[in-house]
């Protein structure tokens, strides 16, 4: 079975070999899912990209980023997921897994429109939940007179989260970002028209993804990118482009929200009660910070709202039907 440099470029980690060896699949070929369809996946392997069937009763639903073992053009096994990006299932109950084995989430927002704090907070919580680190990427820096001061403003609004400003048009900030990504597997999240696919192309130095005219989706609500797909950058680095989604229902562990609001989490260590809800308890260090003007009341409210939403999403369907929060 060949692995070698081709698999390493896909993010292969030698520690996975034991996992592959433990699978009883003679002639099994390891590879990484780059695209998923109903009943099929496209798998990048040492010998190129090949389609493989997936039978839900045997292997569940492999997602983009999964490592799989293929036998006779069929997925025989999915290797252990080291973290998944997920959301509340938009149709059914519980969670929907979007991608697996990610190192970093790029939260993409265009500077051609107001940067919405809520989007960044939600995506940051999703990132930590996936075991990945969030980086906010403000695109279209070429469209504003002072991108650096906008970047600094957003960074101040989201303590503990890296924020960079780039232009896919002029190339500003792209090389630095590419270097920071190294050989990581990253996923691009952000609303339609934010410039995710343009960023992918800029990082790749080639037109690997279709990009769209902003006016097209303003008028029709259309998305240029219609599926999640994993791309390899020529200089290393693995990027999963996604379609912009209008709103996501959060499905994360509470700790992921705490990680996205590390400033509040740090303060709460000084609250008098260790189960303080920062709502009415005496000796609350978080509310004290709001009163002292050190923490914005909006940020504290957003923190509470996300916790409530995440808790709600985890309740069983019959309970959720009774009452909305
Ligand atoms: N001026 C400028 N325009 C940009 C930049 N990045 C993207 N755009 C433009 O923004 C529009 C949307 O870009 P896309 O990359 O298609 O956006 P997307 O986030 O992939 O959108 P969806 O695929 O629909 O989710 C296109 O018209 C791009 O040319 C940039 O850095 N500067
Ligand atoms: Mg796109
Ligand atoms: Zn408190």
Descriptors for this entry?
325 residues; five-stranded antiparallel β-sheet; alpha/beta; 33% helix; 13 strands; Ribonucleotide Reductase Protein R1, domain 1; Rossmann fold; 3 domains; 13 helices; binds magnesium ion; binds zinc ion; binds guanosine-5'-triphosphate; six-stranded mixed β-sheet; OB fold (Dihydrolipoamide Acetyltransferase, E2P); 22% strand
Low-confidence stretches: 214-221
Top-tier CATH class of the largest domain: Alpha Beta
By CATH, the superfamily of the largest domain comes out as P-loop containing nucleotide triphosphate hydrolases
Residue fraction in strands: 15-25%
The CATH architecture classification of the largest domain is 3-Layer(aba) Sandwich
Number of separate helices: 13
| Spatial order of strands in the largest sheet | 10-9-8-11-13-12
Q: What is the terminal-to-terminal distance?
A: 53 Å
Estimate nothing, just give the exact number of structural domains.
3
The major pleated sheet works out as:
6 strands, mixed
């Amino acid at each position: 079975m060949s692995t070698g440099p081709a698999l390493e470029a896909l993010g292969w980690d030698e520690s996975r070999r034991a996992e592959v060896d433990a699978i009883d699949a003679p002639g099994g070929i390891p590879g990484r899912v780059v695209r998923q369809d109903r009943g099929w996946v496209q798998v990048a392997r040492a010998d190129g990209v090949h389609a493989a069937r997936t039978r839900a009763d045997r292997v569940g639903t492999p997602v983009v980023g999964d490592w799989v073992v293929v036998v006779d053009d069929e997925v025989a096994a999915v290797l252990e997921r080291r973290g998944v990006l997920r959301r509340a299932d938009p149709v059914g109950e519980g969670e929907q897994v979007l991608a697996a084995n990610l190192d970093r989430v790029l939260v993409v927002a265009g500077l051609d429109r107001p940067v919405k704090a809520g989007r960044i907070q939600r995506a940051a919580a999703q990132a930590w939940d996936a075991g990945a680190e969030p980086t906010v990427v403000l695109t279209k820096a070429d469209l504003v007179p002072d991108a650096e001061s906008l970047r600094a403003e957003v960074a101040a609004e989201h303590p503990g989260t890296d924020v960079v400003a780039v232009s896919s048009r002029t190339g500003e900030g792209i090389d630095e970002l590419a270097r920071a990504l190294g050989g990581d597997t990253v996923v691009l999240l952000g609303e339609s028209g934010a410039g995710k696919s343009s960023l992918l192309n800029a990082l790749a130095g080639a037109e690997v993804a279709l990009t769209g005219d902003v006016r097209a989706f303003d008028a029709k609500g259309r998305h240029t990118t219609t599926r999640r797909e994993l791309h390899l950058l020529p200089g290393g680095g693995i990027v999963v482009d996604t379609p912009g989604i209008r709103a996501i229902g959060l499905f994360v562990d509470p700790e992921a929200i705490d990680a996205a609001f590390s400033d509040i989490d740090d303060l709460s260590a000084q609250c008098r009660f260790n189960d303080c809800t920062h709502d009415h308890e005496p000796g609350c260090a978080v509310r004290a910070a709001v009163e002292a003007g050190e923490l914005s009341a909006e940020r504290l409210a957003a923190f509470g709202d996300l916790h409530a939403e995440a808790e709600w999403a985890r309740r069983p369907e019959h309970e959720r039907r009774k009452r909305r929060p």
